[in-house]
Amino acid sequence: MTLFAWLSSILVAVIVLTVTAFGLWWERKLAGRMQSRLGPTIVGPIGLFQPIADLLKLVQKEPIIPQRADRALFWLAPPLTTLFALLVAALVPFGPKLAPANIDVGVPLIIALGGLALIPVWMAGWASHNKYALLGAMRAVAQSVSYGVPLVLTALVPVILAGSMNLNSIVAWQHRHHWLVVWPVFLGLPAFILFILAMLAEANRIPFDIPEAESELVAGVSTEYTGMHFGFIYLAEYVHTLVGSAVASTLFLGGWDGPFGPSVLWMVLKTCLLFSVLYWLRWSLVRLRADQLMALAWKWLVPAGLALVLLAAVWTQTPWGR
Amino acid sequence: MGYLLDGLKSMWTTALNAIRPPFTQEFPKVLRPHPERYHTSFALLHDETGDEACTGCGACARICPSQVITVKLGKRESAITQKKRGYADDFTLDLTACLVCELCVQVCPTDAIVMLKVPELPGFRREDLVLSMPRLYENEKSKPLGWSNATKLMAMQDPKAGAAKPEPSKETAPAPAAAGAAS
Amino acid sequence: MSGWTGLFVFLVVSVVMIGGLLAAAWMLRVKARRDSPLKRHAYECGEEPDGPAWIRFHPRYYVVALFFVLFDVEAAFFFPWAIRERALGWAGLGSIVVFTGVLLVGWAYALRKGALKWQ
Amino acid sequence: MEATPAWRKLPYRRLELYEPEGDLMTLQLGPQHPSTHGVLRIKLHLDGERIVKAVPFPGYLHRAVEKLCEQLTYVQIAPIVDKNDYVAPMTSEQAIILAIEKLLKVEVPRRARWLRSALAELQRVASHLLWLGTMTLDLGGALGGGGSVFVYTMRERELVLDLFEGLTGSRFHYNTHTVGGNRHDVPAGWAKDMHAALDLIEKRIPEYETLTQNNRLFVERMRGIGVLEPELALELGVTGPNLRASGVDHDLRRDAPFHAYDEVATNVITAKAGDCLARTQVRVAEMKESVRLARAFIDGLPEGPLVSGKPIKLPGQFKVNSGQVYAALESARGELGTFLVAGAGTSPYRLKIRPPSYHAISALPYLLPGHTVSDTVAILGSLDPIMGEVDR
Questions:
Q1: CA dihedral A294, A295, A298, A301 (to 10 degrees)
Q2: Which of A148, A222, D14, D128 has its CA 20 to 30 Å from the CA of residue B102?
Q3: What would the pLDDT profile of A165-189 be if each residue is shown by its tens digit?
């Protein structure tokens, strides 16, 4: 059992990191095409090894700690962001058996870990002793706190429908109830959209990347970081989005459930597809202002999330939802 | 709702652009086609007898707005026609500060200085972009020359040229009239 | 039980991976021959930083924080209800509607008072 | 944004009189900042994220161009002023040449005037395209939707630069204007290329509108932000699209025609609101109008000589001993004027450029207070300052 835990942990970590690395390449290639550019072409065939070259470059850079920074916090924050982002992957079932941590309180734990990822961001912003980083960290805290609520509420919808907080059970329930037929009728689609929006805001991705808004705050939280520490913040954002897409496809898109073939493949396919759509969204929209983002969360997403939760509850009481 | 709709419209627009061919090129591998009038670096020419066309008059040095040209006038006997005439003993053009304004080409009385169609290669030292006289004469032989010289530019700006030539083609600019205007 | 072991194992794997990257960065890093105080200045667009960054900051978000606490507690109540939802039936649904209703009244009051406006 | 705070009217008020809710923070925005359009430095005094006071510091790009021009002869000035407004070099060349021709009382042939007008309109299209891209870049980030719009507008701007390159051989240092006319005649097939390029640009403009001013996300960021009142704009000398967006119907192309604008009527586009959104709308509409004008000018290009006097052959070809003139044209950013005092002989005694961007950024201390840091980039971007022109 322990051996299996080790093996599946390593496998999932490798899957996540590989998909992230090639996700980086894929995003740049896709963005290039959307912008009438070529994207990376030099390193490897069609630029495929670009992420590896980036990693090698970052690893070689000189780490610089600003004069008046809080050295320990400054040093610790970026690895922690990556760690927390990566930990969520343990809870996502990549197959009926391939889940390192098949926990009964999976959904709340995922949300808790997502909220935990906020703390190193704030640490990084405060420890830098830089005004841009401080502004960015302030925004990051407010934004993640605001979007935590709709995230919880929309994640409740599949929990109510499946009657379980275990992600594997949720997938199994979707498998039993033919998610493709039942799901979109009236609950799944809005809940899915709201979840994606809240997840993007939690992961600080464009169009919700206000903490990093590089046209205003230079680079926000990561302004003072160099080398691999910058790389960790960068990586954390990607891993966060990737794992977020994995969670979303588990909760709403049937997870590893597919008509044929190995289940891991279906999970990776769904995750990558969702990931690409998020890229597409990212390269199409301009960002909102911090206060508008808060207003969006509190005025629209929270009541909408509540309404969806109640509707889901009503649906389960009807003869079709039992 | 409207936000979602507008977001979808934006995404449609970017998708539309994704299927258009890319407009960037891989620079060192693929070179952009240059138009006929493209001009960058310089060359000094020889005249039809094979003698150096530059008479060392220094008109280009005087007109240059950023004063990157230095010419040293020397008088000696021509090796070909055995006549005593002016030569440039030394001619240096500092490309680092050149504005590529084409004025030196326009004022040359003997069409000696022209521009090239290919840029100089970048170098690691400042001297790499200082064109000495041997390099300028070398450019004449080794690199494609640009379209313009003083005669052609003058023909284009001839105040007496009128309705006679509707869209004049530059390559066939009438030389005699231009020579008159240039003198 | 095994789930938590798995989570722990994954934690160990992640820490090892990140530690490996950190170690690689430490070993391969370029070291400047001479340290310069200018390099260690906080970045402020090339200007000398004017005043400290560690200040009393008024982000106008404290209302947001209060709201978050409010709604998070509510979410904590939602979860146990959610998994027993079918068993509790219409009675459970009715009580949760009342609970949400009270919350929403408070939300509407705050909205009308302008607490959610960026002042 | 809610109602404008009353203290916004006093941009340089004393900070001691303000009661902050936290500590006041001083933030230097620029000179090395991604979205200050060059090297403008703005010193922001922040209360939280709210701007209390903003002081712009231009001058980081000062190159002493005016002094340099006083060392050069009249024929040498044209090539070096291209770099003033480095987004629209064609019009910054024309502005100087207009003044020199007025001082020397040189007549410009009709063909040259029409060609100049066509070039000015093309340059306006190129400049507005770049502005739209960079402003969306400020709003949406280089790594987001803004980046996409930026690359699209750059792609279409390339078409205009290709046209200029076909005409003059250069993409930036055109030096196509000379005292008394134009140096380069239109090559064969150029008009056809131009029509093709303009057709493409006209077809693509609705796409940018979808991504920017017709997109509610974009509009939310822009509406009601940085309202420039017409009285304030007139007082500060703001011209061009910034002034027209405030509702003042003023355009030198119609009110004081230069080149050939007295022969082709210009529709002046105005908007009422005076906010960032209005400035966007005015510029995008102007782009369409410029496409129409450029077509009209190139289609109606008259025959005849291109230069009135003798072409340039000597540096000291033009001499004048006294006189002073002011000549202005409507560049992409507004009234670009040149004040020229003749020295004895072949060089000017004093040359003063009136850059529209300088007056535009002088509105910043009035516009910024009361907004947040995020709005700074929207306001700055929508004013379209070019620092090469501000600092000269």
A1: -100
A2: D128
A3: 888 788 877 777 766 555 645 677 7
